[in-house]
């Protein structure tokens, strides 16, 4: 849902953007206007234990499980926070310094859902306008709630699933994670909307390499073509400590 390259007006490098917000665009809140995060790394409160994933630092809350999908080199493709029946998927993207892009991104998400036959509803949430939609998955109908937070040269997108998708008051400690999130954008120029790099901590990356070095188990017999045989067991993915 996030375009890269091409002829879109956000396709060029963010250095070419004017520092003055365009008409109708969202203004990025200044540090002294923020009562809670996501924070830019330059304004983040100190003395908080966080899991460092590079461009994202996630507060360590005992009740929250942090699930990541990463390649063998430790580069993270997906981050999902889980608490009970609720899940919060988090992504972080490059953006201009002073012009927010959530309004435009939200409209593209809405259009993409509409093209798939899904009607999305705009609602007012803690961070401004959100999108709610009910989509069909392999497990049946699933409610989703999309939110966006514009920061200095970055945007955080969150997607709630579970009871918190329709009742924000039931998000519980996942909201605390969002409030305590820290973004380390870095100084190098990046195309607007490009995902900011995420990586596993070194000890978790070493764990991936150790598992790859182990001898592979004997190949399991092929299941019957009708799918009635037992599914082959998968080795658990390593998780950051």
Automatic annotation (TrEMBL):
<dbReference type="InterPro" id="IPR022183">
    <property type="entry name" value="DUF3710"/>
</dbReference>
<feature type="region of interest" description="Disordered">
    <location>
        <begin position="1"/>
        <end position="45"/>
    </location>
</feature>
<feature type="compositionally biased region" description="Basic and acidic residues">
    <location>
        <begin position="10"/>
        <end position="22"/>
    </location>
</feature>
<protein>
    <recommendedName>
        <fullName>DUF3710 domain-containing protein</fullName>
    </recommendedName>
</protein>
<feature type="region of interest" description="Disordered">
    <location>
        <begin position="191"/>
        <end position="241"/>
    </location>
</feature>
<feature type="compositionally biased region" description="Basic and acidic residues">
    <location>
        <begin position="200"/>
        <end position="212"/>
    </location>
</feature>
<feature type="compositionally biased region" description="Pro residues">
    <location>
        <begin position="215"/>
        <end position="224"/>
    </location>
</feature>
<feature type="compositionally biased region" description="Basic residues">
    <location>
        <begin position="232"/>
        <end position="241"/>
    </location>
</feature>
<dbReference type="Pfam" id="PF12502">
    <property type="entry name" value="DUF3710"/>
</dbReference>
């Amino acid at each position: 849902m996030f375009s890269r390259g091409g002829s879109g007006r956000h396709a060029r490098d963010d250095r070419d953007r004017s520092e003055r917000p365009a008409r109708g665009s969202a203004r990025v809140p200044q540090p002294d206007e923020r009562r809670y995060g996501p924070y830019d790394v330059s304004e983040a409160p100190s003395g908080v234990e966080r899991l460092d994933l590079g461009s994202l630092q996630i507060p360590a809350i005992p009740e929250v499980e942090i699930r990541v999908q990463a390649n063998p080199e430790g580069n993270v493709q997906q981050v999902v926070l889980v608490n009970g029946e609720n899940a919060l998927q988090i992504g972080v993207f490059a953006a201009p310094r002073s012009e927010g892009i959530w309004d435009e991104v939200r409209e593209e998400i809405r259009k993409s859902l509409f093209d798939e036959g899904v009607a999305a509803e705009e609602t007012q949430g803690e961070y401004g306008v959100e999108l709610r939609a009910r989509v069909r998955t392999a497990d049946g109908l699933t409610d989703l709630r999309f939110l966006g937070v514009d920061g200095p040269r970055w945007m955080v997108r969150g997607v709630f699933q579970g009871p918190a998708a329709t009742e924000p008051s039931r998000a519980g400690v996942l909201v605390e994670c969002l409030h305590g999130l820290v973004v380390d954008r870095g100084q190098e120029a990046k195309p607007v909307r490009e995902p900011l790099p995420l990586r596993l901590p070194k000890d978790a990356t070493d764990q991936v390499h150790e598992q790859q070095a182990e001898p592979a188990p004997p190949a399991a017999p092929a299941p019957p073509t009708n799918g009635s045989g037992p599914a082959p067991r998968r080795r658990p993915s390593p998780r950051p400590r």
